[in-house]
Amino acid sequence: MSAVLHLAAVSRVHGEGATEVHALRDVTFRAHPGELVAVMGPSGSGKSTLLTLAGGLDAPTTGSVWIEGTDLASLDQAGRARMRRTSVGYVFQDFNLIPALTAAENVALPRELDGEKGKVARRLALTALEEVGIAHLADRFPDEMSGGQQQRVAIARAIVGDRRLILADEPTGALDTDTGEEILQLLRARCDAGAAGVMVTHEARHAAWADRVVFLRDGVVVDETGADEPEALLAGEAGR
Amino acid sequence: MGAGMSIRQAMLAILERGPMYGYQLRAEFEQRTGETWPLNIGQVYTTLTRLERDGLVEVVGHGGADEGDRAADQAGSDRQHVSYRATEAGRSEVSAWFATPVPRTQPARDELAIKLAIAVTLPGVDVGTIIQRQRSATMASLQDYTRLKRTGRAATPEEPADLAWSLVLDSLVFDAEAEVRWLDHCEARLRRAALEPGRGAVRHESPAVTTAEEPVR
Q1: What is the overall mean pLDDT for chain B?
Q2: Chain B contact for A92, CB < 8 A?
Q3: Which residues cross the membrane (chain A) (predicted)?
């Protein structure tokens, strides 16, 4: 099984000379289908940089980023934008919904931007909202929903059109404990259904939902738990 | 340690539900607590014998055992057929247990806190690596507890014992989470101390906390 996301020896340097900051140093990282990976580290450890590079929102100084077998450096800007809309879903701490659009319109937007007809995009949006359990809120505006409901809309937007890589930056940061757990359940279910998920979090109890936890310090991966490759686990099952 | 005490109280409390054999008692305990604190059957019978000696439980029947074997009452094989119930004194001990908070005045011995307390005072010990190894190990346990919580009978409790087990898992989750937070805190403080000489940091040949260039493994 090949990785949905592969960062190959990635470094990212901000600034030059005396003000040079090494946000990431020679990091190699993979997320496979069916796998939820948590990235933990104190602020300044490089975890947000890792997510930004994985989403193609920024480019590495050295090394390469591969999504579903494509080197992002081989795409032009339009190609990268299309890759982001069709393969990558982003979930933020503060939801980032467009306030003037309903839930269904927010979710449909990436599909419409990708040239899907309005009706088709809405149908896909309703399917995604159904999957996250809030089809009945399709015509509500963000300010008419609770934080947990808004984050569900954001997850629906991240998965609409069967995107296989979900990147989540502190997705439970603005939510209470129970609501946070519900959001993790959704991310977990999506990964169990075959997506690859990468979640940045500073909460150990939330990272514990992941198959693997990667620890970043000063831009370097210092350790990880559950490092067994999923295929190795499957082989183990078969042999039993 | 208080663990032996709490097992004794827990067994006595479970007996309030009615007379039980030792094996039943163990099964009832483990239904509520999973295999978090496994009880061996010898321990169960030793505890029952002491409770009987203290007048807190009494034998109600020798179901299954031959009358002729009564003489060999202390033999383990025979005791398995003996059923026990709480006495009046036993029931008031249970009430007192529930009525009294568990004291925190003498914290349970914490090997990790002791290990770090010693490590930070010794030159040449790489505390940063100790912290990171521990954090990975605790995180792996936390992942296991979380997996147990979201699958199996704790995820969809159907009876009180399932709910009890789910609450025990929550307790393990909170403990492990607190340990990871404490380790993060220790790491941050040691880093700060290393940057400000004279603030309590031990002088090391090599830095106290693993630097970015040196992955743990």
Answers
A1: 82
A2: no
A3: none
Q: How many separate domains does chain A show? A: 2
Select from B129, B130, B141, B146 the residue whose CB has the most chain A CBs within 10 Å, as the one to mutate to test that interface: B146
The answer on A142 and A103 residing in a single domain is: yes
At residue A36, the pLDDT reads 96
A208·B135 Cβ contact <8 A: no
In B, which residues are within 8 Å of A42 by CB distance?
Answer: 184, 188
CATH code at A171?
A: 3.40.50.300
Asked if residue A178 belongs to a domain, the reply is yes
What pLDDT is attached to residue A208? 95
Choose the final residue of a domain: A117, A137, A163.
Answer: A163
Looking at chain B, the number of H-run helices and the number of E-run strands are: 9, 3
Interatomic CA distance for residues B190 and B167, integer angstroms: 34
Q: Which residues of B touch A188 (CB under 8 A)?
A: 150
Tokens of residue A17, six digits: 């000379």
| Regions of chain A with pLDDT less than 50 | 229-240
Distance in Å, alpha carbon of B32 to nearest chain A alpha carbon:
22
Domain boundary among A110, A140, A163: A163
Look up the domain containing A115 and give its range.
97-163
How much is the pLDDT for B211? 45
pLDDT in tens, B116-170: 999 998 988 999 999 999 999 999 999 999 999 888 788 888 888 999 999 999 9
